[in-house]
Structures are given as C-alpha cells and as structure tokens.
Design a protein that fits this description.
2 strands; flat; 2 domains; single chain; two-stranded antiparallel ribbon
Length: about 80
C-alpha cells in the first residue's frame, strides 16, 4: 500500500526541494570561483569578515549591533 499525502503538503515539499537545489547550484558555482582564487590570510582586526563593530543601535528601538567596513582591509577581509 502506498503512503498518502495531501496536495498541499506535497507542494510544500516540492517547493522546499526546488529551493534546496537552487541554493546548492549557487553554492557550487561560488565554490568553483573560490577554488580559482588566491586564498589570503585573514585581516587581524576583522578576522576575515570585512566588518567591525561600531556600536549598538538605539536601545529604545533595537539592540542590534551596528557594523562598518573594516578600516584596515577596506572591507575585503584580507590585507594585500
């Protein structure tokens, strides 16, 4: 006997699968590009992220950390 599933649930699973395939394709393309790149050591200040903390937003509205471009590596994440 076959399992049963609603059309709505089937469409949700199908949509999730299509999104995963799309993300995997994008990640694969990004990895291929990264493999062809020269890998540099991380910037000491930002640890390779290209951003440093500048402070916090208005505590009355948000507690999100505000970031700015790292001044040492100019946002690249590495120093040439």
């Amino acid at each position: 006997m076959k399992n049963k599933i609603s059309k709505t649930r089937y469409e949700e699973i199908k949509k999730d699968w299509e999104e995963i395939e799309k993300e995997a394709k994008e990640a694969r393309e990004e990895f291929i590009e990264a493999q062809a790149s020269l890998v540099m050591d991380n910037c000491e200040k930002c640890k390779g992220t290209g951003q440093v903390e500048e402070g916090y937003g208005d505590p009355a509205h948000t507690t999100d950390i505000i970031y700015r471009e790292c001044p040492d590596c100019e946002g690249k994440g590495y120093i040439e």
